[in-house]
Write a structure and sequence with these properties.
Two copies of one chain form a homodimer.
Chain A: E1 26-32, E2 42-47, E3 52-55, H1 60-70
Antiparallel strand pairs in A: 1-2, 2-3
């Protein structure tokens, strides 16, 4: 196993992508806030039919996505 | 099994809580946007050391949490 430079041994993402992923392609978004196990926020998108991808929490489209979810109103 | 009223058979949350959960108590947040399998946004918080809880996506603290993550800047 490769040790990560900053000692964040329980981080899930070795690298992240900032590339846009269409909502049609994923079924869920997992957010792992900064905590004792990993000293950075991690956002992992579960693709369908299978696979997971780590996205850059600072990518503009990721921020927009979270803001959109946060501002959803019930009809 | 109990069928849900609105026919959303693949939804994960039968009910949600709006009660505040301290960030210390959870390790990740899973967001399931509206999709073919469930016609409402679902937010599931994974507690530590174990357990999962569905939270109300419209609870003010949940919205604030997502906005905070969306506006995180790298130091």
């Amino acid at each position: 196993a490769i040790l990560e430079v900053n000692g964040n041994l329980s981080c899930r993402c070795a690298k992240t992508t900032s590339e846009y992923i269409s909502p049609k392609k994923y079924e869920s978004i997992e957010i792992r806030p900064v905590g004792s196990s990993c000293r950075r926020t991690e956002i992992i998108i579960k693709l369908r039919p299978s696979g997971k991808v780590c996205v850059n929490p600072e990518a503009p489209w990721v921020k927009k996505l979270l803001k959109r979810i946060a501002s959803t109103k019930k009809k």
